Amino acid sequence: ASFPLSVEQLTAVYRALSIAPPPETGPCDFDTLIEMIDANASTWAVAVDKVRNQYDIDGCTVEVSEASFDGETFQTVAAEHPDAALVNRTVTKLGLLEQENINYVKAAQRIKAGTLS
């Protein structure tokens, strides 16, 4: 959706975050949404930037990205294909099988806690 968010769209955002929406009576612009998110003790807004590079390795799509959450930069690698065995072979070939597999939400939580290594 684009800004301003309608009350229905704002309610959907809060539902996705599993928190009760504030008593908002009208459309919500970006800055107001960020203020409302930051005002809730269980949520926070994160500035995200990402540069993606995609490759084909043995028929498997491999994406190498540099992501930044609130200025903290880290690299990610993802291998995708409908054939799970091909993904496993590609990840093994790249030497990534023993690397921890975490999602962006967990990475953001670790950055906030100062524990992303």
Protein architecture, described:
The protein has helices at 7-16, 30-39, 84-93, 104-113, and strands at 48-57, 60-69, 72-80. It has 117 residues and is α+β, with helices and mostly antiparallel strands. Strands 1-2-3 form a three-stranded antiparallel sheet. A hairpin with a 2-residue loop joins strand 2 (60-69) and strand 3 (72-80). The mean pLDDT is 88.
What is the structure about, briefly put?
This protein is α+β, with helices and mostly antiparallel strands.
Roughly what is the average pLDDT, rounded to an integer? Answer: 88
Straight-line N-to-C gap? 34 Å
Strand order of the largest sheet: 1-2-3
- Name the overall outline: elongated
Oligomeric state of the chains present here: single chain
Q: Give the fraction of residues assigned to helices.
A: 25-40%
Largest sheet properties: 3 strands, antiparallel
- Estimated structural class: alpha+beta
Whole-angstrom Rg:
18 Å
- Beta strands, count: 3
Assess the beta-strand content as a share of residues. Answer: 15-25%
What does the secondary structure layout of this molecule look like, with pairings?
Layout: H1 7-16, H2 30-39, E1 48-57, E2 60-69, E3 72-80, H3 84-93, H4 104-113
Antiparallel strand pairs: 1-2, 2-3
